[in-house]
Amino acid sequence: MARRNKELSAEVSLIAFISLLSVLICSLLLTAIWTRMGTMDIKQAMGGPGKVSEKKPDPVLWAYFGKNDTIRFKMENSRVKMPQHQASMADMETLRSVIGALVAEEKSLSTVLIKPQNKTVYEKVILLMDEFKGYGIKNLGIVPL
What string of H, E and C letters represents the secondary structure of 78-103? Predict the structure, then answer.
């Protein structure tokens, strides 16, 4: 009996490999969709439908930079009717007094949004933020142009 030496082929069929990968990818996509669909936001643990909150939104102070480094202040969601105030970065004492008056008039003020112009110097924005921090304002934001 003569034995024949068979050559072993190390070639892998790519078609079978690609079809296996496509099946795995499809199954992963389907399970990702099902897990996303299966989540629910539960707001109440017991009882009927809850009451809609009658809480008013917190007041927000807007600080708009204008020409010649003037700053216009506008209060939103305020419980107290306030006129618009204006101050200049050139006169820091007036600016401090205006900010102090705004904070004193609205005790619950904790958010200030600053809207600079495209020519506003960055240093002046930071100085204004420092002034608000000095009066205890916690949330400061810069609105994009």
Answer: CCCCCCCEEEECCCHHHHHHHHHHHH
